[in-house]
Amino acid sequence: MLLGSITILSAAAVLWALLGGVGIPAAVGIFAGSWVGLVALAFLFLWAVTAVVNQEVPQETDSKFYRWLTKLYIPAIFTILGMKIDLQGQELVPTEGRFLMVCNHLNILDPVLLLGCFPKAQLAFISKRENAEMFIIGNLMHKLMCQMINRENDREALKTILKCIQMIKEDQVSVCVFPEGYTSLDGKLHHFRSGVFKIATKTQVPIVVCTLKNTEKVFHNALRLKKTPVPMHVVGVIQPDTFGGRTAVDIGAQAYDMMLADLGEDFRPEEATEE
Fold first, then answer.
1. Phi and psi (nearest 5°) for 86?
2. Residues 100-147: tens digit of each pLDDT
3. Is-contact 207 237, C-beta < 8 A?
4. Is the dihedral of CA 147, 151, 153, 158 positive or negative?
5. Which CATH number applies to 58-274?
6. 176 - beta bridge partners?
7. CA–CA distances in Å: residue 78 to residues 203, 217, 229
8. Which residues neighbour 232 within 8 Å (Cβ) at sequence distance 6 or greater?
9. In this structure, are strands 174-177 and 100-103 parallel, antiparallel, or unpaired?
10. What's the pTM?
11. In the 8-state DSSP scheme, what is residue 228?
12. Are 124 and 175 in contact (CB under 8 A)?
């Protein structure tokens, strides 16, 4: 939508120039210049509205304005980076009530992909605390009620989990977690940190299990003006009526098996194969 609007405005500038007697080469230059200029203005606007965010002030509710910004900008990001999204299984995502979404993690783009694929879900992510310092992204995450986790301190990590439980119970957002706890450097699906599944067991909400592929290739391909196919699959939902007396470890193992079945055995790490 954003890039479409920019292109229409650039085309209007070209038409105005042609009607004024400007030659075709000059008109092409006007189109290119106006397109780049409008993209730059769009970026400056995004920077301006995120620069005023104060992360010291707790975000108690999901921001409709900043949520709208993600819906506006993310499709443009997909287009600029040449991402060809193959979304399957979206009909499995609950349309009423909150849920916990879990997914494998290959690249910093993964939260952007999930936000773009499920714009109505009001996803808030658990993210490593270092991401709070990222240019534009950190402040935007704050307004979307994303929770920063200290992976080196179990007590602080527990506080983050409890905050996510509170947000779901208060019907503020759904929570999305990468249960591996870090970006997979070799592309494999590594061991899950089971504690995050307590978010679902303590709130009795469904667990939406997703997989993605190829996001680690996007930047490399974009620099070469090459498009990247990005499969994004909702592989299933673990309903709360199946939790029973099961532990978070058991439920996490079920989610792992569901992901691996969709990704394929090539995603199983070597140490798991040896075991």
1. -110, 90
2. 999 999 999 999 999 999 999 999 999 998 999 999 999 999 999 999
3. yes
4. positive
5. 3.40.1130.10
6. 101, 125
7. 33, 13, 11
8. 85, 86, 87, 88, 113, 114, 117, 210, 211, 212
9. parallel
10. 0.87
11. E
12. yes
